[in-house]
Automatic annotation (TrEMBL):
<dbReference type="InterPro" id="IPR007357">
    <property type="entry name" value="PhrB-like"/>
</dbReference>
<dbReference type="InterPro" id="IPR036134">
    <property type="entry name" value="Crypto/Photolyase_FAD-like_sf"/>
</dbReference>
<dbReference type="InterPro" id="IPR052551">
    <property type="entry name" value="UV-DNA_repair_photolyase"/>
</dbReference>
<dbReference type="Pfam" id="PF04244">
    <property type="entry name" value="DPRP"/>
</dbReference>
<protein>
    <recommendedName>
        <fullName>Deoxyribodipyrimidine photo-lyase</fullName>
    </recommendedName>
</protein>
<dbReference type="InterPro" id="IPR014729">
    <property type="entry name" value="Rossmann-like_a/b/a_fold"/>
</dbReference>
Amino acid sequence: MPEPAPVLIFILGDQLSPGIASLRDLSPADAVVLMAEVSEETVYVRHHPKKIALILSAMRHFAADLREQGWRVDYIELEDPANSGSFTGALAAAVERHRPSEIRIVQPGEWRVQQMIDGWEARFGLPVRILRDDRFLCSIPAFRRWASRRQALTMEYFYRDMRRQTGLLMDDGQPAGGRWNYDAENRKTPPRGLNYPAPARFPPDAITRAVLDLVARRFGDHFGALEPFALPVTRAQALAALDQFIAAALPDFGDYQDAMVEGQDQLYHSMLSPALNCGLLVAREVAEAAERAWREGRVPLNAAEGFIRQIIGWREYVRGVYWMHMPDYAEANALGADRPLPEFYWTGETDMRCLAAAVDVTRREGWSHHIQRLMVLGNFAMLAGVDPKAISDWFLVVYADAYEWVELPNVVGMSQYADGGLLGSKPYAAGGAYINRMSDHCGRCRFDVKAKTGPDACPFNALYWDFLARHEARFRDNPRMRTMYATWHRMKPAQQDAYRASAAAFLAGVKPAADGWARAPLSTGVD
Ligand code: SF4
């Protein structure tokens, strides 16, 4: 009797979860798992070397675990001479080798990959079963239904529905502690002398070492430091990092989640997003771990709630917005911003200490925390009128947790207001006073945060008012911005002119980045 044709399960580099839907309802005897390191994914933008190393190492470890469990894994390494360089090419070769009865895959995270998958049935003449990615708590159709019932997509209401639906932080149908949101108790300025927990770090094993050599050789000219490399690359390591965060950092996460402190990269942040977004952890278990810690009295409610809101609220919400609005969302530019990205986003060479520090941690770690991303790097780009595509490419390249489904809404929508307010009811614009309140950068900066205009004044101050003036027609009737415009109109014309002249003079001295940092030339891909 000939062997029955197997099911070919294609697992992508951000689907590295033992419970992934494509592995369910099949036994190792009935299937072949295909995993492929393809150059089109490693070079479609010039990713941070740590991000490439994380994904390749995590894929190789995941494949080894599957083999140990008895699965037959057809694994194509990046430098395999037969590697075609694309998902479709890898699949074509695997179909030839295994003659499967069907192809099975979990819905990809990115629209671009979905377009590819949509052509497979016709191309291969085989059934292609695309399974829901149920690692996300809200399905895409469910998000569409939620959105279709609302005029404004307010995240807070989505989050409350997710709380009700999951039962997380709920007591008898009511929010734990009587309130949905404890942000009012968060965002404190950290006093001097706090003890910050040591981040979880995982020394490379032999598999990771081989990947690091490969990445150094092929992608060493990309932005970012490959080593030291200490990210979790296995499920066991990711779970250990989660445990360490819950025990050591979560208790203070709420209080200080918006703070920036010189010499402290992680503060009380989890730094779990790289592991979460490639599948080593899943949203529900992360949120449940935080809830358990609160119920057992190990963390305060404001910390657990703030963290859980990021996971089951914001993360799910931006994914829903992405899938509802692609592909147009990638082209959004509501404010007509067209300035090239400043070169210092790549070099870190700027006298603005807050920006230099944010670029520096990004270069070293492939990560920075959300206030550095939103209120320093994103805020500057929006105030300066940087093309949203240019800043979005930068975010996609430099962060180890960046996949288009999460990066695009966060950057184009939340940080740049390029979607015209779909995600946020007002732009996240701030002058130097905000950064001074939330950080200790300004005291060591060559600019004077209290000075309003002139060559020594903090550039954020003039850029802020210049931004409001440029976009007055759009924002002056926004109820959340009336106070700012009232202040602008109380200023004497000479003061307004001074702000605008100061902003123009500063921007005239900002060197634009040369082409090629983010997307081209692709000198290190597979030939
Ligand atoms: Fe940043 Fe301005 Fe403060 Fe300097 S003075 S660190 S540029 S906010």
